[in-house]
Amino acid sequence: MGRMHADEHAIDTALVRRLVRGQFPCWGYLPVTPLASGGTVNAVYRLGADLTVRLPLTAGGAADIAKERRVLATLGSLPVAVPAVAAVGEPAEGYPWPWAVHRWLDGEPALEGRAASVRDLAEFVVALRASTADGPPAYRGKPLSSVDAGVRRAISELERTGEPFDASAALARWTSALAAPQWTGPPCWLHSDLMPSNLLLRNGRLTGVLDWATAGLGDPACDLIPAWNLFTAATRPVFRDAVGADDATWARGRGWALAMSVIQLPYYRHTNAVISANARHVLTELGCRKP
C-alpha cells in the first residue's frame, strides 16, 4: 500500500521492534513481520506466531485503541472468534499515540465475489444484533441523511476521476435509499465496518471478525453492506432472507454500501488497491459502473 493520508505517521518494522522491546520485553525476542492489509486506520505487524501489533496511522485513529478494547470487553459470546487484546502500549520512540497488541486469529481475509458462507455471516450479524449489552453509538448506525452532503460531494468527485462511473445512476440509487423509512426500533448492536478484509475465512467458512472500533448501537441496516461488498446477485437474496431484512432496512443497507464505495474510491484509488477494488465491486453490483 502507498501512503494513504496526508497526516500519516511513518511506521516501519524497526519502530515496532523498538516499541515492543521497550515496553513488553517478554515479547522482545519475537520476530516482527509487516502484514499486507487493506486497512486504512492501522499499520499491522505480526509478532511471533501468536500476536499482532496494531499502530494507528493518524491522530484520528488513536482513540480507536481504547474504544475497541472497551467494545471487545463488553461483547458476549458470538458464533465466530473476535480479537483479544493482549496489551496496550504507550507513546514512545517518537511514535505519538497508544497502540495495541492482539492475539493472532487464523484465517484468510474474504474477497469480494469469491466463495464465502452467506449463512455464517448472517448468523454472526443476527447474533450480534441480539446482544443486550450497553454500548456506544455505532460509527454508521445513524440515519443515512447524516452523510448526504458527503456522498453527493464524493459522487461529483468520482465523476471527475476518469473512472467508468455512472453518476446519474448513483444519484438515483442514493435518492431512493434516502427515501426509505427510517429505523424506529430500539438501537441494535452493529459491527458497522463489515468489509471483506475484516472477515476471516477457512475453507469458505467464516471463523473470525476483525476491527471493532466502529462497533456499537444503531440502525441494523449498515451491517447489510456485505450483500453488495462481498456477495453477488446469486447469493444476495439468501443473505437477505437469513438476516430477516425488511424492504426499508434493505434499502438503507444498499444506501450505506453506495455511500462507502463512492467515498472510498476517489480517496484510495491510487493508494489502497484492496479498498479500491472493493469499491468498484460494489458500484458494479449496484449498476453504477459503465461497461
UniProtKB/TrEMBL annotation:
Name assigned to this protein: Aminoglycoside phosphotransferase family protein
Keyword Transmembrane helix recorded: no
Residues annotated as domain Aminoglycoside phosphotransferase: 36-256
Enzyme Commission number(s): 2.7.-.-
Keyword vocabulary terms for this entry: Transferase
Pfam families: APH
One annotated GO molecular function: transferase activity
Gene3D superfamilies tied to this protein: 3.90.1200.10, Phosphorylase Kinase, domain 1 (3.30.200.20)
CDD domains: APH_ChoK_like_1
